Amino acid sequence: MSIPLRTLRALTPYFRIQILKFIGCGWLFFVWIGFNIAVAKEPINQMPLYLDAEKIVYSQKKNTVTATGKVHIRQYVPDAKTWRHIYAENLSYQKSFLTPGKISAWGKVWLYEPNGDVWQTDSLEFTDRFDEGLTKNLKLLTQDQSRLSASKSHRSGPETHFEDVDYSPCKVCALDHCQPEQTKTPLWQLRAAEVTHDQESQTVTYRHARLEVKGVPVLYSPYFSHPDPKVKRKSGLLFPVYGVSKDLGMMLSVPVYYVIAPNRDLTITPIFTSKQSGIIAAEYRHRFHDGEAKFAGSYTRTQNLPKVINPPLNAPRPPKPDRWHIAGKTRYDMNERQRLGLDINRASDTTYLSRYPINRQTPNFIQNKNLTSSLTFEQFETNTYFGVRNYMFQTDTPKTTPFVAPMANFHHQTTPDKIGGALSVEGNFLSVSRQSPVPGQQATQMQRMSAGVYWKLPYITEGGHLITTKLGTRGDGYYTRHYQSNKSVIGNVPQEKTTGRLLPQASLDWRYPLTTTVNQVNWLVQPMAAILASPISKSTKNIPNEDSTIFELDDTNLFQANRFNGIDRTDSGYRAVYGLDNELLFTQQRSISLFMGHSRRLDRRQVVPVSMGEDKKQSDFIGCLRVKPVSWLMARYRLALNPKLHRTRYSELGLSVGNRLLKLDIGHAFLNKTATLNGRELSQINWQLSTQVLDNWALSFAQIKNLKKGQGGNALASFVFASYKDECFQLNAGVYKTSYVDRDIRPDSGFLLQLVFRNLGSFTPMTAPKYPGSMLTAF
């Protein structure tokens, strides 16, 4: 039963007495507390209260309502679109016509705030707007399951003050339900004489704070503040960042973070080193309505650089004392179909970013010194794509490094016609320039225009055979300057030259997928074959090679009409390809698959580079095995086998075996000396052994090692890592050692210790190399 109290006041005294007697009988009902003055005035509290209790007494003289026994009061908060609840043994509510009403509760009081926070206190006094009030012996459980206790608390407007505070996000037993065997001491907690939570500035401030780990004080600060845990961005000092390495010594940084606007921020990071000069780095981020932009840069002055005497002609520029880098990334959506992009990556030299911890986690395990800057424009239509890209590279061979401006691509495909055929049109324009030519490969300047038309018709017979017919032709036109087609001939280099070619192509692809089910195992077998034909092109030797310098024959391109990545080199001639694809599909996402393929030349021509997977008669035998028979085993193995020499040209292995108790990850790559640029075999392995015997603890050892003798047979990098992680704290500790040598980069070693305190921040190392893993195990 619910009776609004303002209706109660409007009745005659007789009826009021009768109704109050009815209330005194102990009936359970709800009361809407909403006192109105008989004046033309808005009520002070726009959020009425609803009361439920075993016994409710209203005093007209004192203008109060007193409730006892299973008291429940609730209030709807429009801004939060939910309810606020109070549960107590006793409660009184005093209403004033000119000021906010006063709510007092005592005897195991529980307050459930609209934001999800839960308050437990011995006594509580608040206004009916809950903007001012105080509590005693408070225990607070926040919406993210953090816990706070205080002897007193006082809320005044946007600020809430707590005294004698303990705070921790770590799990302990429930607020008031600890069992004897359970602990009340969290893994870590903050204790402070006073804490102020300011909702307007969104900060939490501590005075005379100390950090305790398992009840033992480890750190004291007279003043400490951090953003509200609910706040994602807040100006101020970030947690310190440190590092230790043999090369740079002790490193320490305290980044400064500044929120310029809701969509813009700036981070300035000074880095101090004990063996080298300091580093200053900055990062600016800007997110706008139709895109985003991010720019970063750094500067330092290096001491004791090695001297370089008479460097080779095309050698990288030796590092100078003043070293810097700039980086930027911008994306802008002009409309729903058009997009602009800008990437800037430049440095004073190519070893700067590998040596210095600019990115907080320098990837010492993998060295990639090449930097790429680009400007792009893209347009997307339903069946059409158009893109223009401009590239600038920074490499270790500056005189022969290309500058690309522009490279344009166009592609359009029609919808299938009545018989299922589809027509596609492709276009490409490329302009490349460099300081010096590369005899037999590249010119100082080249412009290329290419256009092609292709028709594709897939057809499925009544017996299930899939036959795909492809017909097409492509025309290429070239203009070159200073291109020497034969690198072994010394003589006059042609100043300018124009050439072109026409490349018709035809292919017929046959596949016959067969499937059956045996004992809940789905078995798919698909034999396949193809005939590919294209007239022999005799003009390739007069054309520079800009975009087809890398060729790898494997299971992904064996059946393609053009096995080269680009346009400059063509897969002309005639060949037959055949293969077999087997796949077993078990329950619970288990599977085993095997692909085998081979091709034979029908024209006895050498099309691909010598020793790269195909001669004048046939290709290597190509194989790929993927195995996932059980949950604790996953492997992938790829190889190319020379059919004449019966030797492996390349092989790749990715293996993951074990579970959380003990797990081994292995990645191995092998290249025959005929497949490498320097004519030396490559055999490299990276592996990691990890274990997680306990729920929160993990230990791992990782290593990258060159297995060939005489090529730095020792480990290239080693890493020992231990970690602990629970709901409120994370600890990562480890040591690492690298043996890379490149100009001013020398073998290095160091250790890391990373501490992450939930809702407070992290104490993070600058140099924390990670095990690269093996992408080969991905299916």
- Content of β-strand: over 45%
CATH class of the largest domain: Mainly Beta
Low-pLDDT stretches? 1-44, 360-367, 774-779
Number of helices: 3
The CATH topology label of the largest domain is lipopolysaccharide transport protein A fold
Instruction: Report the span from N to C terminus.
Output: 64 Å
Globular, elongated, flat, extended or rod-shaped: what is the shape? elongated
Family: Belongs to the LptD family.
Function: Involved in the assembly of lipopolysaccharide (LPS) at the surface of the outer membrane.
Subunit structure: Component of the lipopolysaccharide transport and assembly complex.
Subcellular location: Cell outer membrane
Characterization of this structure:
The chain folds into four domains: 2-228, lipopolysaccharide transport protein A fold (Sandwich); 233-436; 441-483 and 496-631, no CATH class; 655-779. 3% of the residues lie in helices and 55% in strands. It is built from three helices and 44 strands. It has a 30-stranded mixed β-sheet that branches. Strands 1, 2, 3, 4, 5, 6, 7, 8, 9, 10, 11, 12, 13 and 14 form a 14-stranded mixed β-sheet that branches.
